[in-house]
Design brief:
Strand order of the largest sheet: 1-2
Shape: globular
Order of helices and strands: EEHHHHHH
Low-confidence stretches: none
Strand content: under 5%
Mean pLDDT: 89
Distance between the termini: 47 Å
Oligomer: single chain
Number of strands: 2
Largest sheet: 2 strands, antiparallel
Number of helices: 6
Structural class: mainly alpha
Helix content: 55-70%
Radius of gyration: 17 Å
Length: 170
Amino acid sequence: MASATGAVSGVAYSTAPDRLERALGGLALVMLGFIIAALVKGMPDWPQIPGVIWLHLATIMLALALTPVLLWRPRGTLAHRRIGYVWSGAMFLTALDSLFVTTSRPGHFSPIHVLSVATLVLVPLLVVTARRRNVARHRRTVRGLIIGALLIAGFFTFPFDRLLGHWLFS
């Protein structure tokens, strides 16, 4: 089993995926599958969808697809770092772009935008903790981002009055 030492505490941590991380990777793939299914069903509406929504969908789908790769493969490698930078960029751009997605109430933010602001703060923290080799904090931040910004926020894109929910359940 692979391990690393936390820069701050000097405590050794396993870098192998645990049960939670295996589950989070699987849930990310399930969420990606729901998005793809919704997109396929909503194909006739595609020409009316604004570019900001397409950018949002593209970046979130990239992050969802890379999540299991990052969680299930070896960590601390050059490949993990490179893919991690792409994932972090996708997450940051998704959060930034979401601030311009106000189609359900134009000009107004919804409670889900709180997660966007949190993501804009946490992604740079994620990168800093990785560069400082603070494995425990990096791992907690990754888990928090996946649970909050990917899965919980993603779940709330599927109510019937939202675009993906309308496409998927209509």
